């Protein structure tokens, strides 16, 4: 598309670079070093520093501190007395030898896959549905999507608990009326591993679909109509048109929302904590819950830090391919 | 790399036209292509749309429905799909709780502070990152993503200990900083995508007219990255409005509490969960966000996707 | 390498050291005379004491009465902050770590040990005699606040669980007097069951995760959660007695509660709501359950609702988990003298009698208080006071809180009630987790 031509242009910047077309790896020495004369070379500095200072203070410093505490036995006592010991890699060793961690990791990966898969599938479907709707109905669906999207997750989790409340929950009642699953009036969703997952999965998918659907829809409206019409004139079926033309155009957006969903769902905490608190018997204890309970219920802060570090590294590995692409494209800019 | 903007909306072309274009295209399609078949095939998408809307709106409907019920109608074994005796009692109780107004004011202060600061800091930083050549740009990009990957609660204790040392606990400033810090990296990333898309000619033309760097930024470039600014305002708004844990841990004095803490107070072991009151509070709490989203919805979508894809 | 930044304990350091060497017997006998101190009288004009109270504990009126007496005595003001229960351990743990923590805190008696054991609270041992003011504190409140024979918090009030039953429903089934033995109880419940045939009706609603109820059966059979040998804890659900108790609980739960309740907890759905809806004729609850029931169903008259202590198979009433709170003082408090004064007033016989018991309906913090209250207690409250006379507490170690926090104890009883595990299997799972958790510090 047209925008792919912008990188070479933007590359020049207000301070024209002498190395316009150079590829990866060259950015270092070219920095704002030698030729920096006058206010122009200082501009990026003063523009960056306010944000830089804030990020350094409230993001980088805590991350450094987090990594540091993961090498100590920082615990509840340390909070009050300030005393802790350096334990080297002990927290990490304890972690990888703890079956609870591995179970938690497996749960997290599977559950993330289920949530991302569900959200993307429904989201893609709804996005395509939107393109096939007339004006009024499209507005209705959009408004519905925005409602689900905008609900703060503290509120939606409370609503969920009420919908699935044993004895009084409307979902329990509705399911009982279908006569498909027997009497579910008193079913306690949060107390059965499968049902607890299902309840949380429904909540996550419910809130994730709007962003995915609306983003993909925005992209889908940009697919050139001429191509589709041409294919149709050639006798291609609707499914073929969608698969070959539309999906090809959607690919970058689809990749983006998938990666973002993976990152967000991998660390889902609020909804799980509010609905099942990781129970029953740790069945819904994903890494996010595991690190929270370790750090905030057991107050093993050092171990909790180690879990967070490992979680982040795992996510980095999972998304490495995407990030590499991204960095490469960043170099082209 | 040829990354593609999903919407193709250059910052020079705001949302309206694109939307119109889509509509026009749809109409053209309707007019051109096999009118008969199209009319018939509309049945399937229309039915699907109705089914989907009913399912997706149901939780919202049930929240509102419950909020307007008197207690005996809330706790019934056979649910009542419309309140028999609608009442605003639940809302009155929720609002007249002594802390509501204080918490609302605190939330407003924190939200405005976080939004303004995020935009101000983010704009300049992202402009610098996209318009100037300098060392460590890629590192910053990777860092932005790493921050996104940290578990949401991971930085709570380190930040708490640092703020304790710095004397920033129990203050609006500290809370605002915490929120700004959590949204800034991602915001910069998104806004940067928009800066990159602005053709250099635009600012060169301004320079030829004698504009200073400052003028180029504020008069020419910033207006063009509006979708990115809107996306940032949403991130900051949500971070500050929805957060429970950071406010709960950082604010010791209850006169500094924000609204999510008020929302949490509707369920206590000794008074039981008052579902009517809780749903009424949830409605009130969600309302500003829903209204906000309704207004900026289209910008938000393009802001996030266009900005981020161009990464 | 050891990093330490231990702040000076200030003026109290010496006293604390002396008290450390003194060997208190653990009861209410004060520490050896060398370490005994009285709460210093201080003037606090212009100062403000920050007190954190938990919602639903002392009422505002009672707090106001304490503050009035406190201000009259010291001239200092009081800033009262009422805290919610959700995530309270996170809130308190972090607040106590700040340089300006709240001075006095209302701490649940199952949580106080973890703060005490980790150095968050001021050692009150030297002042114990003065703070007790001649009373014998209830064991269930004092023991969890006592770590290594040192006292870290002052008993505030107690609550015990008793059976709340629907008198009208029982009368319809032909029962006029409250049961006093376990056999009478089961016979009565059988009658109620026969008189009410609705499919969702249970004579005695007892959700499976209700571990406080389950523990009553275990304690009644002579079992223990865990016992300490020196500093080493060993979990006790595997013992024959505890196994008997678990079997008794399963038996009772399966016979008199609904099948659906086997995996539930008391809060979802709320057992008071079930009672108010007439779906059960009895629940085991705290005395504040009455208020919840009447809020859910205002048509239930107070006269129609009665209480009695849960009778045990052993012949006496079942031991009940004594709930309640202690007043702790932050180790980093800058107003320790004022804080001591405030806590002393809160625990004083007059406040306890007139306000904590008289206004709030709580069980006062001492055996003397209970005896004095006995003469005036109304018939509904009486069941709870009687139940409190045979009470137990959770293991007095800072590591208990994590077992309660991760709900493993709920899962133990739920698994037994639903039959997803045999009592033996469930006990083995819990005991091994408990042995690790309770000895984490060793």
TrEMBL record, chain A:
Organism domain of life: Bacteria
Primary subcellular site in the record, as a coarse category: membrane
Keywords assigned: Cell membrane, Membrane, Transmembrane, Transmembrane helix, Transport
Comp. bias (Gly residues): 20-31
Topology term for the membrane: Multi-pass membrane protein
Pfam families documented for this protein: BPD_transp_1
Regions crossing the membrane: 45-68, 101-123, 135-155, 194-219, 240-264, 305-323
Localization (cell): Cell membrane
Family, as annotated: Belongs to the binding-protein-dependent transport system permease family.
Protein name stated in the entry: Sugar ABC transporter permease
Gene source species: Frondihabitans cladoniiphilus
TrEMBL record, chain B:
Comp. bias regions, Low complexity: 1-16
Subcellular location: Cell membrane
Residue intervals passing through the bilayer: 43-64, 108-127, 139-163, 175-200, 220-241, 275-296
Membrane topology: Multi-pass membrane protein
UniProtKB keywords: Cell membrane, Membrane, Transmembrane, Transmembrane helix, Transport
Family, similarity comment: Belongs to the binding-protein-dependent transport system permease family.
Residue span, ABC transmembrane type-1 domain: 104-296
Organism: Frondihabitans cladoniiphilus
Top-level taxon of the source organism: Bacteria
PANTHER family membership: INNER MEMBRANE ABC TRANSPORTER PERMEASE PROTEIN YCJP, MALTOSE TRANSPORT SYSTEM PERMEASE-RELATED
Region (Disordered) location: 1-27
Keyword Lipoprotein: no
Basic and acidic residues: compositionally biased ranges: 17-27
A Pfam family annotated for this UniProt entry: BPD_transp_1
Name the record gives this protein: Carbohydrate ABC transporter permease
From TrEMBL, chain C:
InterPro entries, alphabetized: SBP (IPR006059)
Keyword Signal: yes
Secretion signal span: 1-30
Superkingdom in the source lineage: Bacteria
Keywords: Signal, Transport
Family of the protein in this entry: Belongs to the bacterial solute-binding protein 1 family.
Protein name, as recorded: Extracellular solute-binding protein
Native source species: Frondihabitans cladoniiphilus
């Amino acid at each position: 598309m047209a925008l792919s031509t912008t990188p070479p242009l933007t590359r020049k910047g207000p301070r024209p670079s002498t190395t316009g077309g150079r590829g990866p790896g060259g950015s270092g020495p070219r920095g704002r070093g030698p030729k920096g004369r006058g206010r122009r070379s200082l501009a990026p500095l003063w523009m960056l520093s306010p944000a830089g200072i804030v990020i350094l203070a409230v993001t980088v410093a805590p991350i450094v501190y987090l990594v540091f505490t993961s090498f100590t036995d920082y615990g509840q006592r340390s909070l009050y007395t300030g005393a802790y010991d350096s334990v080297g890699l002990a927290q990490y060793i304890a972690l990888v030898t703890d079956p609870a961690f591995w179970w938690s990791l497996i749960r997290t990966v599977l559950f993330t896959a289920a949530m991302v898969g569900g959200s993307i599938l429904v989201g893609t479907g709804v996005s395509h549905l939107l393109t096939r709707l007339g004006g009024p109905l499209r507005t209705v669906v959009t408004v519905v999507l925005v409602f689900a999207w905008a609900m703060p997750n503290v509120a939606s989790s409370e609503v969920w608990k009420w919908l699935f409340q044993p004895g009084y929950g409307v979902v329990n009642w509705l399911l009982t009326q279908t006569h498909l699953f027997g009497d579910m009036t008193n079913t306690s969703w949060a107390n059965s591993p499968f049902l607890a997952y299902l309840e949380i999965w429904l909540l996550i998918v419910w809130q994730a679909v709007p962003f995915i659907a609306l983003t993909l829809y925005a992209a889908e409206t940009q697919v050139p109509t001429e191509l589709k019409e041409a294919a149709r004139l050639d006798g291609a079926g609707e499914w073929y048109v969608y698969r070959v033309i539309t999906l090809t155009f959607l690919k970058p957006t689809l990749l983006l929302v998938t990666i973002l969903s993976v990152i967000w769902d991998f660390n889902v905490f609020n909804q799980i904590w509010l609905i099942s608190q990781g129970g029953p018997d740790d069945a819904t204890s994903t890494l996010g819950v595991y690190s929270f309970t370790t750090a905030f219920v057991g107050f093993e802060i050092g171990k909790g830090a180690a879990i967070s570090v490992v979680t982040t590294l795992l996510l980095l590995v999972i998304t490495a391919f995407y990030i590499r692409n991204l960095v490469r494209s960043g170099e082209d800019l | 790399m040829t990354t593609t903007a999903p919407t193709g909306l250059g910052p020079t072309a705001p949302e309206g036209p694109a939307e119109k274009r889509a509509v026009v295209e749809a109409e053209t399609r309707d007019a051109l292509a096999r009118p008969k078949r199209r009319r018939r095939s509309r049945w399937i998408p229309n039915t699907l749309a109705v089914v989907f809307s009913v399912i997706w709106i149901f939780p919202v409907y049930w929240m509102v429905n419950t909020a307007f019920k008197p207690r005996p109608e809330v706790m019934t074994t056979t649910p009542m799909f419309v309140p028999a005796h609608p009442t605003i009692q639940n809302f009155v109780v929720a609002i007249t709780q002594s802390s509501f107004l204080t918490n609302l004011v605190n939330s407003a202060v924190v939200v405005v502070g976080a939004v303004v600061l995020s935009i101000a800091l983010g704009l300049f930083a992202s402009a610098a990152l996209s318009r100037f050549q300098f060392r460590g740009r890629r590192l910053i990009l990777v860092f932005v993503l790493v921050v996104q990957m940290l578990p949401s609660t991971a930085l709570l204790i380190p930040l708490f200990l640092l703020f304790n040392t710095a004397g920033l606990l129990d203050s609006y400033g500290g809370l605002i900083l915490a929120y700004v810090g959590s949204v800034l990296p991602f915001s910069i990333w998104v806004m940067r995508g928009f800066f990159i898309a602005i053709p250099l000619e635009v600012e060169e033309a301004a320079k030829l007219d004698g504009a200073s760097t400052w003028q180029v930024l504020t008069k020419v470039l910033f207006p063009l990255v509006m979708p990115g600014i809107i996306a940032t305002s949403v991130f900051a708004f949500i971070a500050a409005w929805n957060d429970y844990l950071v406010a709960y841990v950082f604010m010791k004095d209850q006169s500094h509490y924000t609204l999510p803490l008020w929302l949490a107070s509707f369920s206590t072991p000794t008074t039981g969960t008052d579902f009517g009151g809780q749903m009424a509070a949830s409605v009130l709490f969600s309302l500003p966000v829903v209204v906000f989203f309704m207004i900026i919805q289209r910008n938000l979508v393009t802001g996030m996707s266009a900005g981020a894809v161009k990464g | 390498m050891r990093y330490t930044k231990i702040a000076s304990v200030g003026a109290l350091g010496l006293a604390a050291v002396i008290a450390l060497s003194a060997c208190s017997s653990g009861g209410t006998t004060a520490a050896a005379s060398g370490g005994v101190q009285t709460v210093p009288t201080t003037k606090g004009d212009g100062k403000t004491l920050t007190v954190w109270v938990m919602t639903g504990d002392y009422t505002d009126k009672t707090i106001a009465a304490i503050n009035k007496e406190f201000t009259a005595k010291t001239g200092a003001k009081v800033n009262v902050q009422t805290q919610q229960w959700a995530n309270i351990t996170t809130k308190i743990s972090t607040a106590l770590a700040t340089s300006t923590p709240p001075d006095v805190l209302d701490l649940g008696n199952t949580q106080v040990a973890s703060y005490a054991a980790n150095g968050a609270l001021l050692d009150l041992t030297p002042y114990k005699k003065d703070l007790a003011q001649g009373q014998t504190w209830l064991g269930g409140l004092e023991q969890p606040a006592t770590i290594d024979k040192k006292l870290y918090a002052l008993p505030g009030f107690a609550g015990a669980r008793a059976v709340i039953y629907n008198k009208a429903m029982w009368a319809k089934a032909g029962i006029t007097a409250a049961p006093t033995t376990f056999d009478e109880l089961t016979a009565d419940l059988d009658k109620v069951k026969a008189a009410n045939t609705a499919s969702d009706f249970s004579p005695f609603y007892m959700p499976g995760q209700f571990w406080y109820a389950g523990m009553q059966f275990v304690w009644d059979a002579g079992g223990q959660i865990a016992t300490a040998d020196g500093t080493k804890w060993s979990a006790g659900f595997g013992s024959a007695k505890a196994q008997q108790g678990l079997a008794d609980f399963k038996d009772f739960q399966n016979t008199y509660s609904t099948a659906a309740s086997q995996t539930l907890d008391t809060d979802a759905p709320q057992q008071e709501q079930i009672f108010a809806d007439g779906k059960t004729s009895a629940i085991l609850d705290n005395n504040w359950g009455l208020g919840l029931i009447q809020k859910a169903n205002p048509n239930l008259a107070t006269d129609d609702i009665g209480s009695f202590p849960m009778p045990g198979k052993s012949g006496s009433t079942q031991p009940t988990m004594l709930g309640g709170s202690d007043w702790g003082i932050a180790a980093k408090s800058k107003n320790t003298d004022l804080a001591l004064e405030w806590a002393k007033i809160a625990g004083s016989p007059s406040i306890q009698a007139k306000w904590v018991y008289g206004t709030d309906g709580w069980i006062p913090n001492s055996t003397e208080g209970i005896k004095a209250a006995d003469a005036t207690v109304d018939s509904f409250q009486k069941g709870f006071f009687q139940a409190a006379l045979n009470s137990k507490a959770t293991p007095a170690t800072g590591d208990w809180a994590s077992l309660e926090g991760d709900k493993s104890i709920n899962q133990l009883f739920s698994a037994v009630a639903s039959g997803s595990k045999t009592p033996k299997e469930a006990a083995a799972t819990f005991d091994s987790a408990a042995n690790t958790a309770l000895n984490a510090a060793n």
